[in-house]
Structure formats: structure tokens, C-alpha cells
# Entry
Amino acid sequence: MRRTIGFVIISCMSSVLSVVLPSFATAVDRTAPMRAEQVTAGVAASRVFQLPVRAEFVAPYWRGNPRAQVTLAFSLDGVHFGKPVEAGRDEIGLARHDGTTYGAIRNADGAVAVRVVTDRPLGSLTVLGLSDGAITTHRTVRFQIAESSQAATTQPLVEPRSAWGADPQYMTWTPAFYATKKLVVHHTDTSHDYADRAGAESQIRAIYYYHSVTQGWGDIGYNFLIDKFGNIYEGRYSRDYAGANPSGDDLDGRGVTGAHTQGWNSGTVGIAMLGTYTDADVTPAARQALESLLAWEASRNGIDPQATQAFVNPVSGATITTANIASHRDYAATLCPGDAFYATLPTIRRDVAARIGGTTPPADTTAPSAPLSLTATGGKNRVTLTWKPSTDDTAVTGYQIWRSQNGSTTFALVADSTGTSYVDSGLQRRTSYTYKVRAYDAPLNLSGFSNSSTAKTS
# Structure
């Protein structure tokens, strides 16, 4: 099922908007730049690292044995550990070539300890723990809405570095600028389970620290980043825009050189989708924002979005022939931007060309498939729901939760969820509740209902 119309956050729109979606807007707190603590030790096969403070994110890096298979398991109490996850590789760190292997940033959810397991001895491994600092500002996540019309080549709104909390002291490099000739898409190979914009910004701050300080790049590698809600963020520093919409250019319209694709950074713009898209494609909101950004960049720089052309690096003189809108893997031996997202690129190129040409792809009227295997588990004044996603979950924007009470045949919509679980709290004690769930996509096509499931609160 092909999806051609997506949701975007209100900040990404530049014209008339319509159809307010079921919203996930909540009040959240903005926090200060990241606090970093690290522990270093050798690991023969397995070792538990006690973290100095609770960490929201963890990234391992080590000297020697770059092909080592490393896993991490997190503990919130120092005793019980969760399921191991692969350490992975940070795609920007792969280009460092300093004898260090940089693992990917992983969600630690307040862990105080990390169990590291390796299939090869590591003489020196560091566990970097990252957490947000003190609360500084209160803000509200904006509503998601559907797009009715938009100028194809208008610059979408870009959240400046100051808005997501980029600490200026970490920016230690001197910007260089060249005419933009190629557009390169990435994924950050981090979690896409962040629940709101605050969570996305926290993850960006972690990436910023990891790239700037730990890896020594002096700034974040990407020119722009896009979260799953469709927010676009200024990445690599170019100049002070004095409140204007950041473009990533100097005053002459030349793009700033990032650190996103080794050997091909000058003359290219790197756009990273926040998350991992190996098995699942980006959300419709993220894709809508990406296509808006690509159309603007392509149109203003005279780039044919569907062409494959030679590119000469303006610094090294090296030449490569790639699609004008390409991915990291088209330039280097990497899995970035994930198999699922990579498979979408031909359609994205076509849609960007249509935007620039002033045409609109046909609206999607196909409903998603129904969610599966809904289960309800009762607790004190609450019921926890879990379900399996629609089989075309890559195109699903969210799920509606419907509830009836004490055997009633009348169901009411009580909540929405972007994931495949929900906790219905504040319920009456010792009361039976029955639930069913349905999916919806960007154009508001609704699936059929899942099976119903009943649970009794305690």
C-alpha cells in the first residue's frame, strides 16, 4: 500500500492547513545540554559497568578489535538486567579512523549499570552515559495536522540550534562553504521510540555531544535532522541567523560542509532521519517533511531530483556518479539509511520532482489493515493494552483505543497511541473494561477494529 500524503507538525507548514489529527500534544519540559559521565575498563568476555549517574542514553566505544560483536544490557537497580541489545556502530564514527570503534547511541532509560558482553577481548572499552541537565524552560508539543496545500519550493520551518539546546561550547570547528550539488539522506541508527518532541530533542543533544566531543568532530555531523513527527532541526552550525529561518548557508547561498559522508561532505547536504529504519520505513509525517526540505534544496540549487550525475568534490577533486538524491550507502560501505527507508528513495525522488513541477500525487484512499492480537491486563485502577501492529505499519500514523464498561456493547474513543501499547489509568477499581483498537494513516483512512479484549481492574 503506497502512502503519498503525510502528516506534518504545524511548524513545518507554510500555507493553509486543514484536518486536525488526533493529537498527542502534551506539556513537556525543555532541559539543558547533556551531562556526560564515562567509565573505562577492559572486557575479556563480560563485565558490568557501574555508571556514576543515571543515564538516559549510553554509547560504548573501544580500542582494537573493530569487528567485535558487542551487546549491552541495562539495569535500573544494578542487580536486574534487561534484554541485551547490539552495540551497533555509529555511522559518523565509522569515518573517524582513529583506531577507535564507536558504537551507536542506545536508549538506557535511567540505567545505573550496563553489562557489556563481547565475543573478542577488548583491552579498553568506555561506556559513555548521557543525561539531560536541569529543567530550564516549559514548552508544549505542537499538534499534528494534515496538509491541504503548500508552495512546492518554499523553505519549511527549521528549528534552530538554540531551540533544541545545542551547547555552543561544543562547536569548535571553523565552517567552510561550497555550492550545493548533491543531497544525501541518512538515518541516525538510534531509537525511534521517543514519545514526543522533547524526547527527539534529547536524542539530538546526545548525538551532538557524541559527535562533537567524544568523536572530536567539533559539531554534529548532519546538516539537518528530522524526527518522526515531521519537525526539522538545524544541525551543523553555519552562522547566526538572528531569528531568521536557518538555511545552512552563508550569505552567498553556499552550503556549509558537514561531517556526514566521508570524502563527500563538501558540496553536499546531509539530512538524517532520527531513528533506525532497517525494518520499518519513516513515518508519513517525517517523509512529508523530508520531501519538503528536499524540494526546497533541489529547486534553489538547480538540482534535478530524478537525475544521476557525476559529482566532483570541490576540495579533493575526487569524482563519483550517484543519484542527485542519494543515501549514505551510495557513497560508502554502510547500511545507512536502513533497508526499509532505502527502498522508498525512488518514490521520494519522484514525489520531490512532482512538487517542484507543481503537480500533486493522487490522494491515498486505501485503509490500513486492522491491528492484531490485542490483549488487556488489569492492574490497580488501570488496564495495560498491547497489540501487534497493522501489517502495513510503515504507513500507519497511530492507533485509536476504544473502550466499553461492564459488558456494555457501546464503545467510546478514549485515547490515541503512536505505538503498540497503552496504559488506561484512573479507572474504577474492581471493574471490567473491554477494549478494541483500530489504526489510521496520514489521510485519515481508518482500519477495521482489532479483536476485543477484556480485563478487570484490582
